[in-house]
Design brief:
349 residues; Dihydrodipicolinate Reductase, domain 2; 9-stranded mixed sheet; 6-stranded parallel sheet; Rossmann fold; alpha/beta; 10 helices; 25% strand; globular
């Protein structure tokens, strides 16, 4: 069979996440990094000093005319995503968009509509969902190991904000929000992937260090009847990397998902799983990644995320991390903010 040529990819926005994706695209065997777009002076020298060898263009039209990408990775500030998408889709380009995909449900829906209109593949950067341990937990739920799921509790904590902060990331109109939109959304995405479409939200938030919310507590109702709580904060002492976890209770048992393991307690044996407590460690799962960019944060998920997107672009089949799923996450984010502002439950389905 003839060798498949690499997918030509460009990165829009050369900040921290743009550089991460640039490095991945440069070493992943199925992709070719053909350019960056960033209007800031000195970007080419800064990227070159980090080992990124692609040309830098000051605008998207210049990129399209000179580099002929087939896919773009949109890593600009959140409030620009809709406008950037419109510019990129002057021609049909597959879209990978860093999370959160928008600052509002209206913009998220508009981005999704554009992707559908132009019939391109699309994905969102909720990278933790690609961890093998998370995918295994979702598989166990899909196999009905717990029986009817009744409720869950979840958390997402990190140590980042303990005093005044500045920049676009801490301006809600530019970034989409605080800890809910930018950290807690990783777990919100996983919950939506597991339980389906969100229906109702009741939430409270608190700003104690920055001008956006630094912590939040939310009760979530999903269409299928599952309900549960999410607690999130980026001001949690001692959580150097994102500390996340989900405990799920069903009629047949309980599943506890952590960073490196799943604890499973069943009321009776089901398939290969015994009665009582058992453990599935991340090291027990098949190793199917070619590289791990940061083992301490589960960096293999970046490889798996890129592989899922590249496969979608070649096959024409959307990945599970599509903008459709991200729009459901955006509804949770907006519902949390609306409920916190009103002090009342909010219908978001």
């Amino acid at each position: 069979m003839p060798e498949t040529r690499p997918l030509r990819c460009a990165v829009i926005g050369a900040g921290r996440m743009g550089m991460v994706h640039g490095h991945l695209l440069q070493v992943y065997p199925g992709t070719e990094l053909v350019g960056f777009v960033d209007p800031q002076r000195g970007t080419h020298e800064r990227l070159s000093s980090q080992g990124l060898r692609a040309p830098v263009f000051t605008g998207i039209l210049e990129l399209l005319a000179s580099a002929s990408p087939e896919a773009v990775f949109i890593c600009t500030p959140t409030h620009t995503h809709l406008a950037v998408t419109r510019q990129c889709l002057v021609r049909p380009l597959h879209l990978f968009m860093e999370k959160p995909v928008a600052t509002s449900v209206a913009d998220a829906d508009a981005i999704l509509a554009l992707a559908r209109e132009h019939r391109v593949m699309h994905a969102a950067g909720y990278v933790y969902a690609h961890l093998p341990i998370v995918e295994e937990a979702r598989r166990l739920l899909a196999e009905n190991v717990l029986g009817e799921v009744l409720r869950f509790s979840a958390h997402a904590y990190i140590s980042e904000v303990f005093g005044p902060k500045s920049g676009w990331f801490f301006q809600r109109e530019l970034s989409g929000g605080g800890v809910v939109a930018n950290m807690g959304s990783h777990v919100l995405f996983i919950l939506g992937w597991m339980f389906g479409r969100i229906r109702r939200v009741m939430a409270s938030t608190r700003s104690h260090a920055s001008t956006v919310e630094d912590s939040a507590h939310a009760l979530l109702w999903f269409d299928g009847g599952v309900t549960g709580m999410l607690d999130t904060s980026w001001s949690m002492p001692g959580a150097q990397m994102l500390d996340y976890g989900i405990t799920i209770d069903g009629r047949q048992g309980t599943l506890v998902l952590g960073r490196e393991q799943i604890l499973l307690h069943l009321l009776r044996p089901i398939g290969d799983h015994p009665e009582g407590w058992s453990e599935i460690h991340a090291s027990d799962l098949p190793a199917d990644t070619a590289f791990d960019i940061s083992p301490h944060i589960g960096g293999e998920s970046f490889y798996r995320q890129l592989r899922a997107f590249e496969t979608a672009c070649r096959t024409g089949h959307l990945p599970f991390c599509s903008l459709d799923e991200a729009a459901n996450t955006q509804r949770m984010i907006e519902g949390i903010y609306a409920s916190a502002a009103s002090g009342q439950p909010v219908e978001v389905g």
